Amino acid sequence: MIVFLDSGILGLIASPNERTEVTACQNWLFGLLAKGIYIVSSDICDYEIRRSLLLLENQKLNQISLTRLDRWRESIDFLPLTTNVMQKAAKVWADSKRRGLPTADRENIDADMIILAQWSLLSDEYSGRRIVIATTNVKHLEPFSEAMLWQDIRF
Fold first, then answer.
1. Cα diameter, the chain
2. Four-point Cα dihedral 53, 40, 2, 7, nearest 10
């Protein structure tokens, strides 16, 4: 099994906040890694979280979160944004619009479509292996992939 973390999950695990959800998500991820589950994310997810953190006015929280995000890169493989990925994302985006399933405004880059493209290419590469996107919101991903709330992914 492969678990693909979306931006919402990266935001939780990088957070210095000690809210119950943050701690639970971090412990969940430690548990997956301890069981040898292959964990991936995308450079687009890193970008989404990193840019938000850089806008924080609290420099101390900003630095803590950025350090945590960087440390997680040691345990999680981040898939690069290649030409193949971006061409696949454009196709997935157009297909979703034709099916009447828009996930964002037409002018939005729609990172979910890039995540879906990477999920699809990963599924092709690891044919026969279950690949699930761990998210905080399945609404935009579920019609196109296997996406689950992170709390529902158990091993």
1. 46
2. 20
| CA–CA distance, 112 with 6 (Å, rounded to integer) | 8
Instruction: Report d(CA 51, CA 35) in Å as an integer.
Output: 31
The structure tokens 């399933």 sit at 101
Burial of 150 (0-12, 13-18, 19+ CB in 10 A): buried
- Residue position matching structure tokens 């590469």: 125
Distance CA 97, CA 38 (A): 32
Pairwise CA distance, residues 38 & 53, whole Å: 26
What distance in Å separates the CA atoms of residue 116 and residue 118, rounded to the nearest whole number?
Answer: 5
Per-residue pLDDT in tens (0 to 9) along the chain, 155 residues: 999 999 999 999 999 888 899 999 999 999 999 999 999 999 999 999 999 999 887 888 889 999 999 999 999 999 999 999 999 888 888 887 788 766 655 555 578 889 999 999 999 999 999 999 999 988 878 777 889 999 999 87
The residue behind tokens 């990088």 is 14
